[in-house]
Specification:
By secondary structure, this protein is of the alpha+beta class. Among the domains are: 2-65, no CATH class; 88-255 and 271-278, Orthogonal Bundle (Citrate Synthase, domain 1), CATH 1.10.580. The protein is built from 19 helices and eight strands. The protein has helices at 56-60, 96-102, 105-114, 120-132, 138-145, 153-167, 174-199, 213-222, 233-245, 253-262, 268-279, 287-300, 305-313, 334-350, 355-368, 371-375, 382-392, 400-421, 445-448; strands spanning 2-6, 9-13, 27-32, 35-43, 49-51, 80-83, 88-91, 94-95. Helix 6 (153-167) packs antiparallel against helix 11 (268-279), helix 9 crosses helix 18 and helix 10 packs antiparallel against helix 11. The N and C termini lie far apart (59 Å). 37% of the residues are buried. It binds acetyl coenzyme *A.
């Protein structure tokens, strides 16, 4: 297989990944001008091939250029596998469809972080630990008072997670790290619910140790002190499933941020706080919130799908179809399939008729028949239908991305731990191709006017 990179540079991979056993594909050869460089290959357990260019710079002074890291492997990882062409997503080898149907969020946390499904005794310990570390230090309640009610809960979440480091410092002792991991997952739901209560001016509702993870979050969100609140089982199970679907997604923007920050030796809380900030962008986690605004806008505009598809296709218009398209999935996003099916069931069971679900379905059908979206292989992603479900559960729109962060927490942690334990880990420090001015003499102010 020869891939022509440019007239002066040819790279060939010895062997053919499709028909020749992996053992025979041992190296790539890069021709750069008149020089040839042999580059070793790394082959993953799912037969993905990586051309290892680590030595290239030393030998040739050339770097690889890949803005947005669209085809750059930044690490070897055993956590999550995605096959974007075939819409497959697996955590530690287990398919997302099976986990969403049969597992619980706490079980998936254990699987991602420790690498195996827990035994019943291990799961009991994890559940016990997560419930017994869910309180916030009382001092931290004061932090919430400093934010205006209009503060976006993602800003609050990121700042509060970063602040946890002040209470639970980093340590070399693995037992301390293990405890900090538990604290982070356990306290995240409390921080999330408190930030919501603060935004609506209600008293905080404290965590309860008799409830499971999702039930406890829902009671902290919706219970009112001195009034009885029974967590609806359907809502708790739906939330658990949504958290499972979001739990990891290999080297996406926020996870790479977590690894990038952690590669400097920064502690768990600082690294994850940075990941939360990365997730807050509309092209990433905040897309779920943006989808609802977009659907509401289309509905208020008389449901004119064509107008919005045309806007999305117009290169002079910044409008994009939110919840559509993905860097990796090119046929379908398996998470979106599960969520769409669940949205129908849950809304039906709750007796909710959300007009935005109909708008979403019409928009999806129209986009999937449109040449522009077909050609670019743009499909609904995880965010397209998740907001409809959160709305049905009574979660306010600006909390949607916080829900995503709660789900993604075990994935970020698993990736951070893997990075920290990797003997090959180095501080992340990409190169660039400089395109600015070449060296020139300083111009004194008197000559500039
Ligand atoms: N609406 C209209 N056009 C789109 C969309 C969209 N949602 N997504 C991609 N395109 C077009 C681009 O304009 C580009 O067209 P061109 O080739 O004519 O220039 C082509 O499709 C490829 O798009 P890129 O932006 O190069 O793809 P990239 O992989 O960099 O971006 C992303 C992926 C950010 C998800 C993009 O599809 C997007 O902006 N989608 C909307 C936001 C969104 O839903 N984000 C959530 C992603 S999932 C997650 O993070 C949880």
């Amino acid at each position: 297989m020869d891939i022509i990179v440019s007239s002066a540079c040819i790279i060939s991979v010895h062997g053919n990944a499709k028909s020749i056993p992996q053992t025979r594909m041992d190296k790539a050869v890069l021709t750069l001008g008149s020089e040839e460089y042999e580059l070793p290959l790394t082959v993953g357990s799912e037969r993905e091939v990586g051309i290892d260019i680590r030595a290239l710079r030393k030998e040739s002074k050339a770097v690889t250029l890949d803005p947005g890291y669209g085809n750059t492997g930044s690490c070897e990882s055993a956590v999550t596998y995605i096959d974007g062409e075939n819409g497959a997503l697996r955590y530690r080898g287990y398919s997302i469809e099976e986990l969403a149907q049969k597992s619980s969020f706490v079980e998936v946390c254990y699987l991602l972080i420790y690498g195996e499904l827990p035994t019943s005794a291990e799961l009991d310990v994890m559940k016990h630990n997560l419930t017994h570390h869910s309180m916030l230090h009382e001092d931290m309640k004061k932090f919430f008072e400093g934010y205006p009610p209009s503060a976006h809960p993602m800003s609050v979440l990121s700042a509060m997670v970063s602040s946890l480091a002040a209470y639970y410092p980093d340590s070399e002792d693995p037992a301390d790290l293990d405890l900090n991991i538990i604290r982070l997952i356990a306290k995240l739901k409390t921080i999330a619910a408190f930030s919501y209560k603060k935004s609506i001016g209600h008293p905080y509702v404290y965590p309860r140790n008799d409830l499971d993870y999702s039930e406890d979050f829902l009671q902290m969100m919706f219970a009112v002190p001195a009034e009885e609140y029974n967590v609806p089982t359907l809502l708790a199970r739906t939330l658990d499933m949504l958290l499972i679907l979001h739990a990891d997604h290999e080297q996406n923007c926020s996870t790479s941020t977590v690894r990038m920050v952690g590669s400097s030796g920064a502690d768990l809380f600082a690294s994850i706080s940075a990941g939360i900030s990365a997730l807050s962008g509309p092209l990433h986690g905040k897309a779920n919130q943006e989808v609802i605004s977009m659907l509401a806008r289309i509905q208020a505009d008389g449901g004119n799908y064509k107008k919005y598809l045309d806007k999305a296709k117009d290169k002079n218009d910044p409008f994009r179809l939110m919840g559509f398209g993905h860097r990796v999935y090119k046929n379908f996003d398996p998470r979106a399939r599960v969520i769409k099916k669940t949205a129908d069931q849950v809304l039906n069971d709750l007796g909710i008729n959300d007009p935005l679900l109909a708008v979403a379905k019409h928009l999806e059908t129209a986009a999937l028949e449109d040449e522009y979206f077909v050609q670019r292989r743009l499909y609904p992603n995880v965010d397209f239908y998740s907001g409809i479900l959160y709305r049905a559960m009574g979660i306010p729109t600006d909390m949607f991305t916080v829900m995503f962060a709660m789900g993604r927490m075990p994935g970020w942690i698993a990736q951070w731990v893997e990075m920290r334990n990797d003997p090959h880990n180095r501080i992340h420090r990409p190169r660039q191709i400089y395109t600015g001015a070449t060296e020139r003499a300083y111009v004194p102010m008197s000559e500039r006017d």
